[in-house]
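Reading a protein record of the kind used here takes little practice once its layout is understood. The reader may check this reading against the record printed directly beneath this paragraph.
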Amino acid sequence: MIFWRVKPLDQILATAERKSLTRQLGAFQLTMLGIGAIIGTGIFVLTAEAAQKAGPGMMISFVIAAVVCGLAALAYAELAAMVPVAGSAYTYSYAVMGEAVAWIVGWALILEYAVSAGAVAVGWSGYFNGLLQTWGFPLPDFLRSGPFGGGSFNLVAALISLVVTALLVIGTSESARVNAVLVLIKVSALVAFIFVAVPAVKTANFHPFLPVGWGSPIGGGGFGVLGAAASIFFAYVGFDAVSTAAEETMNPNRNIPIGLIGSLLVCTVFYLLVGYGAIGSVGAQPMTADGHTLLPGSPAMAAACAHAHNLVCSKEALAFVLKDLGFPSIGNLVALAASIALPSVILMMIYGQTRIFFTMSRDGLLPQGLSKVHPRFRTPHVITIITGVSVALFSALFPVGLLADISNTGTLFAFAMVSVGVLILRYKQPDRPRPFRIPNALVWPVCLGGLIGCAVLFFSLQALTQIWFLIWAAVGLVVYLLYGMRHSEMARGTK
């Protein structure tokens, strides 16, 4: 049953033509969409969490996560150029490994996109709630965070999710234009941070460089360089959202690879400079109790941070560094820029999720009504609204760290399947035209490296997070057996 109901590539392309989206995005827009999806809560918020897990060694963690994403990006580029339709890893898995695997991949992508959007919304709310307090209009404590964060309902996180949803219903090209402006604001904030923090770097702040060691991919408890890399991986999530826009891209064979690889390269350079500046300027040694490193987000960590002035305790990591260096005005501007620009990440995450649902609905694995296209805006409005409301609820109730790590499990699984898909397709259809092609001499090192890298990072996450992923996959399999298996176009013999 593993390779059951493989949907041929030609049939996938034909299905897309029957109910297609308008092609209106170019290489620049795709690259900006990729940067907009990547640079977000991971670098603005989770830098502090990574510092707690690895200390200065998180610099290596950034490199490890970037290498794994780079290998996955090459695999994505090859498949996306061959199959320029919506659906991302779900569509590629359907064409290579069959319907059952494709369903599990699509189900896992809910963790990558919808849950990730919720995590970004929560991270954004930390900056925005800080600004509201600075301006003299603080919200009541019970509306500043969800139940796990000491409150009841994260109001602003839910509201921003709904605003972004409304924008996506209005139209794709309009969303892309707004996103381009937000990306420029976000990049400007990072440039300002780099110019202030990097000159203030002190060598002494990098010692000890590996206070928690490398960690272990099995039983490492989420600490060390590998544990931090597994969390930092979230900072790179989003580049594959470019591939979900393939069906709305002009000349996708050329522009999709440019958008994927270009956005990843730009963001990697920024991350390394920002990480270097943050660690070297104010220091980032983990906090411990009784010789044991404290888990970010835990009650013990919260108690230790109650009266501590430390980067690893900050919910506004970059603003904290700038203020600590004596530049409070620039710190406030960076916080303002984050508050203005982080919604672009939420936009791309919800955008990617809706396009995956759209494709799964078009294939019959989800109800056909979900793939309805709005007669005026030409967007899949039904599934966009459902997704947006769900993201609003995630963000209102759960903390950023938990959402980010759960999101990573789905992302790593999807990335691994894409790497496997490239190898299988090279074997089964070696002569099929590949507008973007990994060189033959590198295809095995690239794909196996991506697969192994994803596995190492997956097992470097906390065991509880891995268990949540297995439960989620099991629920998805039940849904497939009860609905998708009987209603899919492949089951009905529909072309």
About this structure: The longest helix spans residues 99-134. The two ends are 21 Å apart (CA to CA). The first strand starts at residue 288 and ends at 289. Residues 108 and 410 are 5 Å apart (CA to CA).
